């Protein structure tokens, strides 16, 4: 099965750029996420981490 797919992919011109592009997008996304996590404000993080613990009564008052 892999030889069948590989044979067709080798016949497509310029296909070698897609694995490089996908790796680059993956790397940039996780570097940006890493940067956001370490630069986020502590009060925002504590507010967001307490959202699942709030009840409907706490939100209305």
Q: Quick summary of this structure?
A:
This protein is an all-alpha fold and 61 residues long.
How would you characterize the overall build of this protein?
The protein is mainly alpha-helical. The protein has one domain. The protein has 4 helices and no strands. It has helices at 2-10, 17-39, 42-49, 56-60. The longest helix has 23 residues, at 17-39. The model has no long low-confidence stretch (mean pLDDT 85).
In DSSP terms (H or I, runs of 4 or more residues), the helix count works out at 4
pLDDT averaged residue by residue: 85
Helical percentage: over 70%
Described by strand count, sense and barrel closure, the largest sheet is: none
Shape: elongated
Report the uncertain regions. none
Please provide the ordered H/E string of secondary-structure elements: HHHH
Question: How many separate domains?
Answer: 1
Q: Given the helix and strand composition, which structural class is it?
A: mainly alpha
Strand content: under 5%
Strand tally: 0
Terminal Cα span: 61 Å
Radius of gyration: 23 Å
